[in-house]
Amino acid sequence: MNLPNKLTVLRILLVPFYIFFLLMPMIPHHYLIALLIFGAASYTDHLDGKIARKYNMITDFGKFADPLADKIMILAALACFVQLGLTNAVVLTVIVAREFMVTAMRLVASSKGKVVAANNWGKAKTISQIAAVLLILLLQYILELGTLGAIRLDVGGLTPVFGIIGEAALWISALLTIISGVIYIVQNFEFIRNAK
Predict the structure, then answer these.
(1) Is residue 192 a contact partner of residue 105, using CB atoms and an 8 Å limit?
(2) Residue 132 CA to chain centroid, in angstroms?
(3) Which residues 6+ apart lie within 8 Å of 123 measured at CB?
(4) What are phi and psi of 57, to 5 degrees?
(5) Domain 3-193: assigned CATH number
(6) Which of 19, 56, 86, 97 has the lowest tally of Cβ within 10 angstroms?
(7) Residue 113: half-sphere exposure toward Cβ, Cα within 13 Å
(8) pLDDT tens string 38-96
(9) Structure pTM?
(10) Helical (H) or strand (E) element with 61
(11) Closest by alpha carbon to 49, among 154, 131, 126, 148?
């Protein structure tokens, strides 16, 4: 297994740690720890692709596992946010539906010997999702610092404002998710039309 593929596997392995710290409010600074782990996992996404392209280490495993690792990382974050009341299930459902549709189309294309590579819209979708998750974690950590008395902050007044900012970021990423999904389907409709 080459280095880019190891980084992809590492991204998947970091997910349980991110979930653990995010869902453990009794651990001080748990949002910061979750933010750092999620940030590190997100950086491996950038790094594995860069290394694979620069050193010609692109593999079939990487083509399959890299987008899968992204989906696991993002969907785990959003599921935790739903559980914590930081977003609603509609955003999660929209993103899950798109991911299933595009993955199903990729599987059909793969069965015909074709690889549906990520395009710029798909990359923009992933970046927007990562940015939204990181923003929400940062905002929640600021509120946590206020609750801990580490900074002077009107937590009660800022909680709804931070909630609106985080929700807006997620809806922007959901919109990009829908747009990228439609573009993938239109560009690769031949695989759906000719599926048996």
Answers:
(1) yes
(2) 9
(3) none
(4) -110, 25
(5) 1.20.120.1760
(6) 56
(7) 0
(8) 999 999 988 998 998 899 998 888 878 888 899 999 999 999 999 999 999 999 999 99
(9) 0.91
(10) helix 60-84
(11) 126
Q: How many helices (H) and strands (E) does the chain have?
A: 7, 0
Separation CA 120–CA 125 (nearest Å) = 8
Nearest to 74 by CA among 142, 137, 143, 163: 137
Report DSSP letters for 93-108, one per residue: HHHHHHHHHHHHHHHH
DSSP code for 133: H
What are the structure tokens assigned to 176, written together?
């990009």
How far separated are the first and last CA of the chain, in Å rounded?
Answer: 34
DSSP per residue over 16-31, as a string? HHHHHHHT-TTSTTHH
Q: How far apart are the C-alpha atoms of 20 and 31, rounded to whole Å? A: 11
Task: Please give the structure tokens belonging to residue 163.
Answer: 């909630």
